[in-house]
Design goal:
Length: 571
């Protein structure tokens, strides 16, 4: 039986570490050898590093002034505060940009600033600083614009602001170009060594707030109430959850559950998460899409109003509006995905092409990034989707580990009007008549850089495990690895020689539910999207191997251990 829509997956099992090293570390850090074995396989062998990983602490955050540009940015902002200048916060329309703008607005407002915020309209202005936004700053009487999560490539726009006698402080985390904007300050961890390079835009904004509070002699612990915003933006932007990001997100998730912000409380209520434990997965798949929805479909200012309002009635009303917009966004997503799949079937050579580039005049530019992500998940190829409107194509791309998307766009920059982003996600604008040439060039770049090995999805497995070794003590210990995300994913185990207990079932939308046995123990198993395996497991439900993560499942008040499938193989 051919399993449908499955990209070939290679199991990469971590090598067994030296047992003497594991035992030595286990004694020093007072952790079970199995847990230490996993940490060692993730290149953690220093007991001090392990202790900081297991027990994150806000005191371990580094000095914000180690970030390039921080000193000049803080100095110019303090000058604006002292001289009562009007300040405009210029954000972005995704969750990272919205939370960063909200945080900066709340901090400056608390410090007594005359402060406004501005988020560009995705459909009218596109990404980044715009002339429209600068004109709005002028209209508000602003003499200082502070950008968050954007601006690193806005050289022309910064010059335009100068013509209006407006200074700019750029705070950003995106890849810098060859020349930096001639701003009053450019604050970006990617301009220096390793300190903070993995920070999201909201993380840079938080560090900037730390810098302000430090220079003004304020109690920096007051900023901790905004860690809820940092956790939202950091998780949603899918940046590595290591080092500072891990600390900020760990404490920020706790702050979400006890947030005093009426808007965030209303949003959590609308998501049916009130009183429940919140994880990065729930942020990424439940909370963030609702914040993102308004920015994807038009103006994002309602989202920032939600996160900054002190009025409970306003908060409840906006949270309900976000819920409605998210449903509308889902409908557009599905239609766009269906059209994209139709294009792939007609025009993409999946046997030979190393990348997918699609375009259409009917697509909504606010959802093409989501659809590109789904296509990468399905086909495991770098993917760019371009929505054409008003004689301009606006594209959004997603990539795979072996292909640096931002660098690939740089190889095509002579064909583009503008571009920016990261290794895994980027945006671009292009004249419609250049799309075909871009499509050919981009595919050539992918073909030259990707080898067959790069196009095999890798499943990194931490250790082999006997089901008899699984208990609540192990699950509780593994949960201390949270928050989970890039470069700190949930622990994946494999168990071989499994057998089915009873009959596998297909539940929901092609999900697999079954029970497995090895040794003395039997566990419930759920496999999201693995319904195609049910028939084969029914016929050959003995002596197979399964890769999985271990989770708790709470049903009717009863907590059980559940295994969630990552992949299945027959011996």
């Amino acid at each position: 039986m051919l399993l449908k829509n499955r990209v070939k997956m290679q199991w990469v099992v971590a090598p067994e570490p030296d047992f003497r090293l594991v035992d030595d570390i286990a004694q020093k850090v007072n952790l079970p050898p199995l847990v230490v074995k996993i940490l060692v396989s993730r290149n953690m062998t220093d007991p001090v590093v392990i202790d900081k990983f297991i027990n994150p602490n806000m005191s371990d955050l580094v000095d914000p002034f180690l970030i390039p540009g921080m000193e000049a940015g803080v100095e110019r902002t303090i000058q604006a505060l002292q001289e009562n200048e009007t300040i405009m916060i210029y954000g972005d329309y995704d969750v990272d940009g919205i939370t960063a703008a909200s945080l900066m607005f709340l901090v400056l407002n608390k410090l007594g600033a005359n402060v406004h915020y501005y988020l560009p309209n995705r459909l009218v202005e596109g990404y980044g600083l715009s002339e429209e936004g600068i004109i709005e700053a002028e209209r508000k009487g602003a003499s200082l614009i502070i950008s968050v999560d954007t601006g690193i490539t806005a050289g022309k726009e910064v010059e335009y602001a100068k013509e209006k006698f407006i200074d700019c402080v750029i705070t950003d985390h995106h890849e810098p170009g060859e020349t930096l904007p001639n701003a009053a300050a450019v604050v970006n961890p990617k301009l220096g060594p390793s300190i903070g390079r993995e920070l999201a835009g909201v993380g840079v904004a938080f560090k900037f707030a730390q810098g302000l509070y430090s220079r003004l002699g304020q109690d920096q612990t007051e900023l901790y109430e905004h860690l809820d915003l940092v956790a939202l933006g950091t998780s949603a932007d899918v940046v590595p959850l290591v080092n500072e990001n891990r600390i900020l997100t760990s404490f920020g998730i706790g702050q979400i559950m006890r947030s005093s912000k009426p808007g965030l409380k209303s949003l959590v209520f609308e998501c049916d998460l009130m009183g429940k434990e919140i994880t990065t997965s729930q942020i990424v798949f439940i909370i963030a899409p609702r914040i993102n929805a308004v920015g994807r479909l038009g103006g994002a200012e309602k989202a920032i109003k939600l996160l900054t309002t002190k009025d409970t009635q306003t908060a409840s009303s906006i949270a309900k509006f976000l819920e409605i917009e998210n449903r509308r966004r889902k409908s557009i997503d599905e239609n766009t995905l269906e059209e994209a799949l139709g294009q792939i079937e007609k025009s993409v050579d999946l046997e030979n092409d190393k990348a997918i580039v699609l375009h259409s005049e009917g697509w909504h530019q606010g959802v093409i990034g989501i659809v590109a992500s789904r296509l990468v998940e399905k086909y495991y190829l770098p993917t760019v989707l371009i929505a054409v409107d008003n004689n301009e194509g606006k594209g959004s791309g997603r990539s795979i580990p072996g292909f640096h998307l931002h660098d690939a766009l740089k190889s095509c920059e002579d064909l583009l009007l503008r571009y920016g982003g990261h290794k895994y996600a980027a945006g671009m604008s292009i004249a419609p008549e250049r799309i075909k040439e871009f499509q050919q060039r981009f595919k050539r770049v992918a073909a030259s850089q990707l080898n067959p090995e790069d196009l095999i999805r890798k499943l990194h497995i931490d250790a082999e495990l006997d089901l008899d070794d699984i208990d609540f003590d192990l699950v509780d210990m593994l949960e201390r690895f949270a928050p989970f995300g890039p470069e700190n994913m949930k622990t994946v185990f494999i168990t071989r020689n499994l057998e089915i207990v009873g009959s596998p079932q297909i539940v929901g939308r092609n999900h697999l539910r079954m029970r497995v046995r090895s040794g003395r123990k039997v566990f419930d198993v759920i496999g999201f999207g693995f319904g195609d395996y049910a028939e084969q497991l029914s016929m050959h439900g003995v002596d197979f191997a399964m890769a999985y993560v271990i989770e708790k499942n709470i049903h009717n008040g009863v907590t059980k251990i559940q295994l969630r499938v990552k992949d299945i193989r027959w011996s």
